[in-house]
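Prompt: May I have another protein with tokenized structure?
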Amino acid sequence: MPKLDSSVEHVVNKVVDPIGVSQIRYFAKKFSKIPGIIKMTLGEPDFNVPEHVKQAAIESIKENDSHYSEQAGIIGLRKAIANYLNVRFDLDYDPESEVVVTIGATEAVYATFAAMINPGDKVIIPTPTFALYIPIIKVLGGIPVQVDTTADGFRLTGKKLTEVIKREGENKVKAVLINYPGNPTGFVYSKEQLEEIVDVVKDKEMFVISDEIYAELIYGKKHTSFAKLLPGKTILINGLSKSHAMTGYRIGYLAGPEGFVKNALKMHAFMVTAPSNPAQYAAQEALENGIDDASEMRTVYQERRDYIVGKLNDLGYETLLPEGAFYTFSKIPAKFGLSSVEFCERLAEEAKLGVTPGMAFGDGGEGYFRMSYASSMEDIKEAMKRLENFTKSLQ
């Protein structure tokens, strides 16, 4: 195994080097080494990909469809995405010029930021939130401005946004990112709450990046896409990882005005050339003939949600009822005197239950822990027993 030559030890991107690894992945890997542990760390659907979707990927391979697709993705899939967005959310995108198929929503986020921000530009990030956004902004030379939303029920209010823009300098803030249904909180913005944000940004020189990857997993209410309210300034991020349990297929997409998307496409092409053909044909099948495939999963997730939230609150872990996604985000009682990392490490070691510390989700996450209920009800019930015993030991 080669050892890094001492003459090149310091030849490194000075921005990338100090950035830590994903804390979500770090703790998931760390806790996986504990024998007999129940892991409720990763946001990984425990359902299989629908059979008709898998068959489409198989047929693509059988047909020797092994050549490069268009860099923006196969046109059939882009048309399916545009149609899906129209049917579900009343959005109007040209599949030829306003949709790009990416390697998961992750790459869509990266391509969007890479096409948007210059060194020194600021992006407002409400926290707690998915940890991916902050390091990407830093790598690109931007400045993530974290806004703690815990006092406002995990939402960015129009008043708070106005205050932050004024403080940071309107000429320096280039975008605000919202993620809903939220990871890790499960919070879902109503149309009225989104309109508060619209009122603030509509006359300013800034974008809204709306990550709506969990849009199909909302319980008992309708999803309003931010792109419907402010289409000319919104970059929409979505994908099939959560809606069709296709995490390993790595198909996401971005949609927005052509004037912006043409540059995001350049960044996408520089990074990955084009997505995998079998995965794209599977995604096309999912959107053309499986638009309601998520309904069964949603019903099961809601049953799990109701059970786990009830148990958490009974045990003294203050937990708001998630309106979407498949996570609970619970407050660690102050009387325990434990940081989120200390609590989660002890829970894993002493009770063999793996959850994610809130510090992994930005400044607003400390003092909380996230549990993914993308697990079987059997595992969830056992997890709650282990958490109950662990809680008694702390008290």
